[in-house]
Amino acid sequence: MKAVVVFVAAAAVLGPCESRPTGLEGGVVRGTWGGENAGLIADDTSAHVHIGCTYGSIHQQIVPDDQGRFDVPGEQNISAHPVDLGILHPARFSGRIAAGRMTLTVTLTDTTVILGPVQLTYGKEPRMGPCPICRQPGDGMSK
What is the pTM of this model? Predict the structure, then answer.
C-alpha cells in the first residue's frame, strides 16, 4: 500500500507522460519534420516538402483527423535535380501522424509516380544527402 501511495504522489508531481512535442499546434501541423532524404517544413498556412531530390508545396494548413490521418492537395517537382526544369505536377500529400512521427506519401495525380512512404520525426533536421532543403522555417513559404 505504501508503494502505491508513493507512485501516485510521484505521478502527480511529474505530470502526464505525454509531454514531448507532437508537431501539432491547435490541431495544425507545424515546424520542421526530418528523416533520411526527406523533410517537411510547415507553418500555419502552408508546407514545403522534399523527398530525395524532388520538392513540393502545399498551399494550405495540414490538419490531421482524430486518427492522425491527412490528405491534402499540392504540387511536386520530380525533375528538380540535376537541373530544375520547373515542372510542377498536381499531387496529393497523404499520411499519418502519431507521437511526433509522420508517415508521408506523395502521389502525383497526373502520372503514376508515387514518392514514399517516408518516415519523418518532428524537430529533427532533414538529412538530405546531395540535395539540400531549398527553404527554411520562417522564410515566407506562402505564395
Answer: 0.79
